[in-house]
Specification:
alpha+beta, 6-stranded mixed sheet, 6 strands, elongated
């Protein structure tokens, strides 16, 4: 958990679509990465961070490391949820922990630790204003809030 801020949890439900399968009926690892990325984007948008605005302002959000451990696989038509937790947010990097679980049994499909940064026009790590707003959204006010935010999209 981040020091001085509450951890924000986010979940997004999805369904495996037939066109995401390869000719052997298997979901390629790149498709799982797309599920993770889509959920991170929704999380950021929900919390006031627009990727389009970041890019227009000359910032380059990049993933520097993706650690993914596969436990099982999804099949065509399966319902699943992608869970996300922001576990680190600093001027140098951000870290998301994510997992994909099949529904309704809640079987772990994969767990991931995604590390990234935002580069400015000089290609140096930076902390854009929208990320400062994100951090302030996460600030714990123990007088008024005690539970983590949970959003299922």
């Amino acid at each position: 958990m981040l020091q001085g801020i509450e951890t924000l949890h986010f979940a997004h439900k999805m369904k495996v679509r037939d066109y995401e399968l390869d000719r052997f009926g298997v979901i390629n690892n790149a498709v799982y990465q797309n599920y993770l990325e889509h959920t991170r984007s929704l999380f950021l948008e929900t919390n006031g961070v627009s990727m389009e605005t970041l890019i227009k302002c000359g910032y380059s959000p990049i993933i520097t490391k993706a650690e993914v451990e596969y436990s099982s696989s999804l099949k065509s038509g399966n319902d699943f949820v992608v869970n996300l937790e922001l576990t680190s947010l600093s001027k140098i990097k951000f870290i998301f922990t994510q997992e994909i679980r099949s529904l309704p049994r809640n079987t772990l499909i994969l767990s991931a630790k995604i590390t990234g940064t935002i580069l400015n026009t000089s290609k140096q790590p930076c902390y854009p204003q929208s990320y400062q707003k994100l951090r302030s959204n996460l600030t714990t006010d123990k007088k008024t809030r005690t539970n983590s935010k949970i959003s299922i999209q």
